[in-house]
């Protein structure tokens, strides 16, 4: 069973900086938040 590619889910490259990963995470968190 293949593992999840979290970089692909966030839409960032594997060479993304921590700042880019945080921005992508927050963007998706706002998009999928129930409020």
Describe what this molecule looks like in 3D.
This protein is mainly alpha-helical and 35 residues long. It has 2 helices and no strands. It has helices at residues 6-10, 18-32. The N and C termini lie far apart (34 Å).
Give the low-pLDDT segments: none
Number of helices: 2
> Which bin fits the share of residues in helices?
55-70%
- The percent range for strand residues is under 5%
Structural class estimated from helices and strands = mainly alpha
Biggest sheet overview? none
List the helices and strands and how they pair.
Layout: H1 6-10, H2 18-32
For this entry, give a set of tags.
35 residues; mainly alpha; single chain
In short:
The chain has helices spanning 6-10, 18-32. The protein is mainly alpha-helical and 35 residues long. It has one domain.
């Amino acid at each position: 069973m293949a593992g999840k590619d979290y970089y692909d889910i966030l839409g960032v490259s594997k060479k993304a900086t921590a700042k880019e990963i945080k921005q992508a995470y927050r963007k998706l968190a706002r998009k999928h938040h129930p409020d």
